[in-house]
Write a structure and sequence with these properties.
3-stranded antiparallel β-sheet, alpha/beta
Amino acid sequence: MLRFQAERFALAETFVISRGSKTHADVLTVRVGRGWGECVPYARYGETMESVAGQVAGLPDGIGREALQTALPAGAARNAVDCALWDDAAKRAGRRVWQMAGLAEPGPLVTAFTLSIAEPAAMEAAARRHAARPILKIKLGTPDDMPRLEAVRRGAPAARIIVDANEGWTAEVYADLAPHLVRLGVELVEQPLPAGADGMLAEIARPVPVCADESCHDRASLPGLAGKYDVVNIKLDKTGGLTEALALRDAARKAGFGVMVGCMVGTSLAMAPAVLVAQGADFVDLDGPLLLAQDRDQPLIYDAAGVHPPLPALWG
């Protein structure tokens, strides 16, 4: 029987991107039998808590993973149900999800830690606090990005850096910034141009690899990304669950794309299946629980080795 409820988890600090800010992670938790999963409805994709809950409520009891792939479109609702079905099947079988999916046993992964948009002085201070982290991800996409980027590099001179413009740049802005991104050692730029208006990426130099985020949802997205992007960001709330995420990962690699595995701001329950997808990824951005003031019971372990695979008590 499908059960679901909306839940709210406070963030440790206000999280700001170019599209707005948030103080809580609002998630929908879905339970199927003994399994559970979590999704984050995302307004950028036309989702609300009510619309996603309605999609879940409309599913027939007893639906399986195969039927689910066509019963719902790629998105948050299908993600939570798909992950709950995987978890339920694993618990019933007394096995781990990675075994059932034919994957190698997962290990810990070095993950990026995200710094949200603030004034340069505040971002420099945040970078200093987190300078020991191996990878910092910087939210940009404003008219004053260079001072922010310079400030973060001053604050964390040894950290690897990736930036996420969240569709906030134009082709001209990206071209102007590119030499400075190289100078400051930026390794990846996520979604510099708006999805659907990113054709210029095929016509301009990309001295720093460019990653498709809002432009990439599932395998059907891949043909339209060729020549424009170097890497794709796989998020389970976009793919519609672990099933499609694993298929997208394999298809992206076969098509010559690098792979990043990212997340919305959610709890350890949302990150747990993504840890399986992220094994062997070029970039991992599964820091959602690190941004929370509170998390699930039996949360994921984060330590010097990175984010560890979930314990059975949490998921999978």
